[in-house]
Each structure stands twice: as C-alpha cells, then as structure tokens.
# Entry
Amino acid sequence: MNANTTPDTHQHHCLFQPFSIGRMALKNRLTVAPMTRISACDEGCATEQMAAYYSAFAKGGFGLIISEGIYTDKAYSQGYWNQPGLSDQHQRDAWAKVVDAVHQGGGRMVAQLMHAGALSQGNPYRSDTLGPSAVRPKGQQMTFYRGKGEYPIPREILDSEIAEAINGFAAAALRAKQAGFDGVEIHGANGYLLDQFLSEGINLRNDRYGGDIARRLRLIVEVVQAVRTAVGPEFTLGLRISQGKVNDFTHKWRNAETDAALIFSTLAKLPIDYVHTTEFEAWQSAFENGPSLAALARQYADLPVIANGSLHDPARAANLIASSQADAISLGRGALTHADWPARVLRGLALNNFDPGILSPIADLANEDRHRLEHAHA
# Structure
C-alpha cells in the first residue's frame, strides 16, 4: 500500500472477528509474525527494551504476538549473536516480564522455538554447526544479523544429538509455559534445523530420518510429540512451515501439491492446534498454478491456518480470510511500520510503506530506535 493510502474499514471487518486457536481466545485475526531482532543481552535474556517493543504491538491492537525465534538449548540451537533463549531459568524469568507487558497491553503471546542447525552464524556455546548431512548451506550469512561470508559446512548430527535437540525443544516449551506464554510455536520453516531434515538435497541421510517424505518428517513429528508431552494437552501448540528459506528464497517442494498433501496430512495427525504458513506473497499459488500454500494447509491439515507473506495491504489480508484460505494473518513489515496497524485500519488512518532502514545495517532494536529518531527530526 502506498504512503498515505487510507484503508476502507468496511471491507476489512473479517480481520477483526474474534477467533480461538486451541484453548487460546483471540480478539481478532491479526498476528505479529516472528521477526529476529538480535537484541537480547549477551546471556540470551530478554530486556526491558524488548518488553516495550512487544507490548507496543499489543497496545496497537494485535490479538496475537508471536515472538522471534528463541533458541532452545546450550548446545547447537542458537543461530545469532544476541538471540534470546529459553534454555535456563534466567532466560525464562526474563521472558516472563515481556509476556506480562504484552498481557497488560491486551494481547496474547506465543513463543516461537527454534533450532538453527546448519544456518547458525553466532553461537557462544559451540564453534561448529550441525545439520542432517554435511552439506554447505546455500547463500551467504546475513550481515544484518551480524554474520559474514559463507556458511560453514555442518557436521552430520548424531543420533544422541538429535535426542538432545528434541529434549531441548520440550524443555524450552515447558519454560515458555512457566513464563506465562499463551502457547508455543515450533519453527519448522525457513531453512532451520527441522526444515533442513525435511528438505531434499540437504538431508542426504539413509537412516530413519532420511529418504522419503515420511522419514524426512520424522524429526518434526518427534519434536511435536515431545513438546506436547512437556506442556500438556491444553496448552496451545502450533507449527510454522514454509517452502522458501532465509538462504534460498525460491526453494519449492519437488513434487508440488503431491508433497504438500503428504506433509500437511502428516501434520493433521499431530497434536497441534494450528499451522503457520509463510511464503513471499501468501496469496500466490504455491506452485505453478493452483491454491496458495495457506489454502493447501487448510485443505489437507484441516487445522486453523495463520498465513504470512506481504499481507500489509488490509484488502489483501482480508481477502485471504474471506476466501477461506486462512483463518488469521501475520504481519512482519506491516507491524514494523506501524505497531498500531490494527488500530489504524480500524480507524481508517493512512498506512505508510515499510522503511528498510529500520533493519539496516543491523536488525536490532537499537538501530530501529536510532533510525526512527533521525527521521522524526529530518
């Protein structure tokens, strides 16, 4: 949407209808997408600055805020310097203050749990990386997350380390529940460890975790089951999934809708409450033609779907829900542009274009605050 464009509030009423995911009641269909902000302290604890950042979304009218990817253990899960964790009680207690601020602002909050695997580019606990196979990831490390150069070739993860990773997800999920989060989302998307196991050409294993789709999905299945056991039957649990990756935007599942049907049908059998799909443009066909990825998830998983991908135009976001392709939408750039995006749309106020300077040269909150201050005085 162009700067100073005013949304038509009557067209967007479906965005503001109440909705429930599992036992979690939401006041609307508007979610803040998980966005890495590398602003935790060196020990991986969330800060007061992060509490202010997240609570602004709640005060601005978003029904649900999904945290940035949170690392789960002190082994190989951390992906970025100053990424927050849920690997010990100190990190748990720091998050409790953030969650409380979001709740006071009228929002709900879900913790996204993430293991970076071979895409790790900043981990104080380890000097090497792990992946399903010893395959160098495509692309370059992300400089705005303090990375530089090629990704290293990961070491093939051992069975004992797979068990450690699964236990890390489960333990972090329990800490999230103790911290007061309203749910957890397992990060199975964007090229991180669980997606690495799912992906052909990256997972070359010939054991029970490699081969056909059923075996490549096994780690996701085992993580979901372990997390559900840890948090109990009533705590909201979701899974994020994608085709594209942070290091390979154009990746597609080789067998197109056949693969999508197998993947989402497998997810349908798991004890999760929702699926969160992400594509560059959520409304586009997932493959050469046909339904969007969100629509395929809704069809084959038969679960509530949160759709993500360039949905900052309210009309486009509303259409995805009105056409039954998704049950809710999540915003990244739109939320960064306007923490009060829902309130602005509801009041018919203008929406501005996203300013990439918010995330450049470093995508942390200090850079964002400095950039906004400079432009406010320009």
